[in-house]
Automatic annotation (TrEMBL):
Domain Zn(2)-C6 fungal-type: 13-44
InterPro entries according to UniProt: Cep3_C (IPR031760), Sec_Metabolite_Reg (IPR050613), Zn2-C6_fun-type_DNA-bd_sf (IPR036864), Zn2Cys6_DnaBD (IPR001138)
Biological classification of the source: Eukaryota, Fungi, Dikarya, Ascomycota, Saccharomycotina
UniProt cross-references to Pfam families, sorted A to Z: Cep3, Zn_clus
Descriptive protein name: Zn(2)-C6 fungal-type domain-containing protein
Natural source organism: Saccharomyces uvarum (Yeast)
Record keywords, A-Z: Nucleus
Domain of life: Eukaryota
Compartments where found: Nucleus
Primary subcellular site in the record, as a coarse category: nucleus
Length: 608
């Protein structure tokens, strides 16, 4: 496809014919220049026009990116899962049998080693979700007593689900070397029946994580959580959400999250405001409920999308509504310490929400809104810098990493908005600056032997957003600084934890696809100085959005045999060109290029 030579046509005469004041056939090179042997001069002038055209249309392309980022790199890659209604379902007995293997594989001593790892390294991920942390050791001991006596109740099964969510989180974050010190691979060799000896690696860790997740969900099924709702159901989900579970199983995660919201509402748990007549126990309970609420809002926002219409986080108003008020009160210390780390994380995340709300919108953010977010980020950066960090404690270092990474991510998005909507002179350098900070934060974890921090579920989506935008920008505008960044990101992605699974592979595919689009952009030149801009690359990118959007809204009929209500050819992008401009319809070669690329590099390959 890329070897074919395409003679393009311009809407305007070439500069050579214009100077000679002769009629031009507007081909590149034109007939007059070919006869006079001035092909190179004609093509050179055409390239100059094409180059300026890139910059001329860059603002429109960047505005289009907001839509592309929403549908492709946000919804398509992380919040959609292909529904396979033809798959062979597992029976409940098979589910029990598989989970029994893993529950027997985990011994008592090993369970306490996992709990020790959670206490020493992962406290920031779940301490806020549980009232009394020290109680967990007692609950683990009681779990083994129940296993021995073969007795259980709904109450005990909720505790089983909660402690298994902690075990699952540990399996996800624990370094492979430490896992190999705790667990023997030989029972797994026989269980998987691979025909070869197994050794501990990232692939085996991922398989173990998925099966521990399955065991946790089985414990919840045993609780009959819809008939017997309990706060521990929410706590269990919040701990699972500290892993890639919501990205791996977005539909299931949305269903569980919806039930969490219903549980929260049904028991009026969202009413955690302290009152003067609260007794000490009630006060402590309300503090815990407040932390759970903000963690739940965070999960709810991260999972928000067109397939999750029920939302909780929208009940918390924007922080910017209060920012101006605080600025007018000199006696108020705007740098005051947050009530909890959960509140701090949510406030930073709410600024992310204030920016991302414009991704799929036709209106732009007011400049004063961006300036207010910039001020708030400065305040939060001051607070995070003030957080005490014990170099010997992974808990405090992990806590600070999450907050710093959040601020860097929101700052990057902020200056991306400045570039797209206001073309501020310092916006691109700032984007590059915060991209480097994001890279340095991840690399620092490798250097300090804390690479398991990089398994946090916010890391891969952030890297995806940044590297995708840089790859998109580099298609149209050459930048040495961005090219160097892309090289750094390529190396970084190659070293990210393999426990991210298929999502890591899909990101690699998306980056390679941008590279192919750049090659196509350089191969095919369409000249245009009018009101419209036509190029196969732009058409392919537009079709990407349409295909993902159609796939997301795909409805399966409840009547057996009718299948999808969205025609299959539209999901493949075959008929999307027919809806658009006349220029595209007139060019058979244009159509061949677009459909050929879409066939070879299908955007639906990013879906899982």
């Amino acid at each position: 496809m890329f070897n074919r030579t395409t003679q393009l046509k311009s809407k305007h005469p070439c500069s050579v014919c214009t100077k000679r004041k002769v009629k031009c056939d507007r081909m590149v090179p034109c007939g007059n220049c070919r006869k006079r042997g001035q092909d190179s001069e004609c093509i050179k002038s055409s390239k100059l026009i094409a180059s300026s055209s890139s910059k001329e249309y860059l603002p429109d392309l960047l505005l289009f990116w907001q839509n592309y980022e929403y549908w492709v790199t946000n919804i398509g890659l992380y919040k959609m899962k292909t529904r396979d209604l033809t798959r062979i379902s597992t029976t409940l007995s098979t589910d029990f049998e598989e989970c029994n293997f893993w529950m027997n594989y985990l011994g008592k001593d090993q369970s306490f080693q996992l709990m020790n790892f959670a206490m020493e390294n992962l406290g920031v991920l779940y301490f806020g979700s549980i009232g009394d942390i020290s109680e967990l050791y007692l609950r683990v001991e009681q779990y083994w007593d129940r296993r021995r006596d073969d007795t259980s109740s709904v109450d005990s099964q909720y505790w089983d689900a909660l402690i298994w969510s902690v075990f699952t989180m540990c399996i996800y974050y624990m370094p492979v070397q430490k896992l190999s010190d705790i667990f023997s691979p030989y029972p797994l060799y026989e269980h998987f029946g691979t025909g070869k000896e197994l050794s501990w690696d990232d692939g085996l860790q991922l398989a173990m994580f998925k099966n521990f997740t399955r065991c946790t969900l089985l414990q919840l099924k045993k609780c009959d959580f819809m008939a017997h709702p309990d706060i521990r159901f929410i706590q269990t989900y919040l701990i699972l959400a500290t892993t890639i579970f919501p990205c791996e199983e977005p539909l299931l995660a949305n269903s569980l999250l919806t039930q969490c919201i219903h549980t929260f509402k049904n028991f009026h748990i969202d009413d955690f405001r302290p009152l003067l007549n609260d007794d000490p126990v009630e006060s402590i309970a309300k503090v815990t409920l407040g932390r759970i609420f903000y963690r739940l809002c965070g999960c709810d926002y991260i999972q928000s999308g067109p397939r999750k219409p029920i939302e909780l986080h929208t009940e918390v108003s924007s922080l910017l509504q209060h920012a101006a008020y605080l600025q007018d009160l000199p006696t108020v210390d705007i740098y005051r310490e947050e009530n909890s780390i959960e509140v701090l994380y949510w406030k930073i995340m709410s600024l992310d929400r204030d920016l991302d709300q414009y991704l799929n919108k036709t209106f732009k953010p007011p400049l004063k809104t961006l300036e207010a977010i910039r001020r708030e980020l400065d305040i939060f950066q001051y607070k995070v810098d003030s957080l005490e960090e014990d170099s010997r404690s992974n808990n405090t270092r992990f806590e600070k990493f999450i907050a710093t990474f959040q601020i860097s991510t929101v700052s990057w998005k902020l200056f991306k908005m400045y570039l797209i909507y206001y073309d501020s002179p310092d916006s691109l350098p700032k984007i590059i600056h915060y991209s480097k900070i994001i890279i340095s934060l991840i690399v620092k974890n490798f250097q300090e032997k804390s690479e398991f921090f990089n398994k946090h579920p916010m890391v891969l989506p952030t890297v995806t957003r940044v590297v995708s935008f840089m790859s998109f920008y580099q298609i149209f505008i050459e930048s040495n600084a961005i090219q160097e960044l892309l090289v750094d990101f390529t190396e970084l992605i190659a070293n990210l934890p393999l426990i991210f699974g298929l999502k890591l592979d899909k990101l690699g595919y998306l980056i390679d696809r941008f590279t192919k689009l750049k090659q196509l952009w350089e191969k095919v030149r369409l000249l245009d100085s009018g009101d419209s801009f036509h190029h196969p690359v732009f058409k392919i990118l537009q079709n990407d959005v349409k295909i993902i959007e159609l796939k997301n809204s795909e409805m399966f009929s409840l009547i057996k045999g009718l299948g999808s209500l969205v025609p299959l050819n539209r999901l493949r992008g075959e008929s999307l060109l027919e809806e658009d401009d006349e220029e595209s319809k007139e060019s058979t070669k244009f159509r061949d290029i677009v459909e050929g690329f879409q066939s070879e590099y299908n955007i639906t390959n990013i879906l899982t």
